[in-house]
Amino acid sequence: MTDDLIEDVTETEVQPEPDSEADLSGDGTENEDPDTFPRSYVEQLRQENGKYRQRAQRADELANRLHRALVEQTGRLQDPSDLPFDEDHLEGDNLSLAIDDLLKAKPHLSRRQVKGEIGQGATVPATNVDLAALLRGNR
After folding, report:
1. Does some domain include residue 70?
2. Annotated region Disordered: where (predicted)?
């Protein structure tokens, strides 16, 4: 008896009913979705969008390079990459304020300059050397 029921169910196919009258045209076939566009048009839009993305990426790279150059120009930081990029630094006096804040928080990032005699390079002796005076401890 169950075999008969299974055969009856498999033999009958259920046809879905259309949701609205707009889905069917006069000959009973479905219309294409009105929101679809030709493939060539979609590809053209994607290429155009790709160009804009490349321009935006190039603008971001140039802004980062400008930021780094401006930080280097101040000469206040040992490594210009210590100050992270922020678009606000490119306008007005915000860059110097940001460097001030960074150096207050982390003074070890400031540029170090060697001053005085460090024992390297060509030096001109100030006076003649008196070895006998050095041995006596007079000097």
Report:
1. yes
2. 1-38
Domains held by the chain: number? 1
**Segment 47-64 mean pLDDT:** 90
Please check whether residue 132 lies inside any domain of the structure.
no
Residue 131, pLDDT score: 83
Domain that holds residue 106: 37-110
Residue with tokens 């790709």: 50
User: Does 17 map to a domain?
Assistant: no
**31 in a domain, yes or no?**
no
**133: helix, coil or strand?**
helix
pTM above 0.70, yes or no: no
Residue 8 pLDDT more than 80? no
- For 21-90, give the DSSP string: GGGB-TTSPBPPPTT---HHHHHHHHHHHHHHHHHHHHHHHHHHHHHHHHHHHHT-BSSGGGS---GGGG
